[in-house]
Amino acid sequence: MIEILSITSPIFILIGLGYCAVRAAFFSRADMRVLGTFVINFALPAMLFKALSQRSFGEVMNSGYLLAYALGSLFAMSVAIVIALKWRKRDFQSSVIVGMGASLSNSAFIGLPVAVQVLGPIGSVAMALSMLVENLLMLPLLLVMADRSDHKSASVLSMLRGTFARLLRNPMLLAIAIGFAFALFGLKLPAPLSRVVEMLSFASGPLALFVIGGSLAGMAVKGMIADVSLIAVAKLVLHPAAVLVGVLLIPGIDPVLQAAAVLIACVPMFSIYAIMGQKYGLESMCSAALVVATVASFVSISMIIWIMKSAGFIPALS
Questions:
Q1: Which residues form a coiled coil (predicted)?
Q2: Distance of CA 282 to the CA centre of its chain
Q3: DSSP-derived secondary structure letter, 268
Q4: Cβ contacts of residue 311 below 8 Å, gap of 6+?
C-alpha cells in the first residue's frame, strides 16, 4: 500500500497545492481559468499528439477498448439516471445531469496522471481513446438528452449537428485526429517542432492537477446529501466496475490497456461539471458532487489500484 500511496499522493498533493494557492490569494479562481485554458488548448493537445504519433496505428487504434469503455460508460449513465428518476424522484433533465456526473471522467486532468504513474506511457494512449468515447459519444448524447426537454421543437439531428460542430473545434480532439494520422502514415515532425511539442507536453500533468485544486477553492458543499452521494458513488465505484466488466468481456484488449481503462474510469467527473450544471440550474448540486468525489477519490483510487494489483490485474507498478 505504501508503494501505491507513493504514486497517488503526489497527484493529490498537487491538487491540494492549487487549492491552497487560491485560498491564500496567491492566485484567483480567474487565474485558474487562464491556466486551464493553456492546459486545454496547448499542453494537453501536445501531450496527446506526442503519445499517439510516436506509436504504430495498430497500437493506438483499439476498437475493443473503445467498445468496452463505451459500454461501461453507457451502463453507469443509465443506472444513475434510472435511480435519480425512480428513487430521487428527479425530473428527466436533472436525472440526465446526474448520469453525466456518473459517466464522464476527468480523463485529461486526473485520469492521465494516474494512468501514466501506474502503467507508464500506455496511459496516454488509453486516455486519448477514452476521450474519443467521452467527446464523440457520451457528451453529445447527454447534452441532447438534457436539452431535448427545453427545445422540443428542435430536431435531434440539428441538435447533434450543433453539438458535434462545437466538439470538433476542440484542440484536444484535433490533436488526437492529427496524432492518429501521423501514426497511420508513419509521419514525423521536424526536430525543432518535435522539441516544442515535448516541452509543452511536460507541462500538462502538473499544471492540470494544480488547476483542478484551484478550481475547487470556494466551492461549497451544501445539503443535497442523497443526490451528491448518488453521483459520487456512481462515478467512483459503478463506472470503473462497469468498465472492468466491459474490458473483461470484450476479447482482444491488452491487459495493460484493460487496467488503464479501469483507472481512467475510477477518477472523479470532469472539471467543468459544475459549469455544465449551471446551464440547467443545477450548479450547486454539481459543484458539491465535484468536491466530494475529488476528495473521496484519493481513497477510492488508491483502493482500486491496490485491489487490481493484488488480483494480478496490474502486474507491476511503473
A1: none
A2: 20
A3: P
A4: none
Coil, strand or helix at 130 = helix
Kindly provide the residue ranges of all beta strands, DSSP E only, lying in the chain, ordered along the sequence. none
226: CB partners within 8 A, 6+ apart: 88
In 3D, which of 252, 208, 202 has the Cα closest to residue 66?
Answer: 252
Given a cut of 50, the residues of the chain with pLDDT beneath it are 318
The amino acid at residue 309 is K
Q: What is the rounded CA–CA span in Å between residue 21 and residue 202?
A: 21
Find where cell 495493460 sits: 256
29-38 vs 2-23: helix crossing angle, rounded to 10:
120
Distance between CA atoms of residues 11 and 7, nearest Å: 7
d(CA 303, CA 142): 29
Asked if residue 84 lies in contact with residue 98, where contact means CB atoms within 8 angstroms, the answer is yes
d(CA 50, CA 197) in angstroms, rounded, equals: 7
Domain ranges of the chain: 2-310
H helices within 104-190, ranges in order?
A: 112-119, 122-133, 139-148, 156-167, 171-185
* Listed residue (235, 309, 302, 230) closest to 265, CA to CA: 235
Q: How far is CA 246 from CA 69, 91, 108, 141, 212, in A?
A: 7, 29, 21, 20, 29
For 2-310, CATH number?
1.20.1530
* Phi, psi values for residue 26, rounded to 5°: -70, -35
Query: pLDDT at position 151, please?
Result: 53
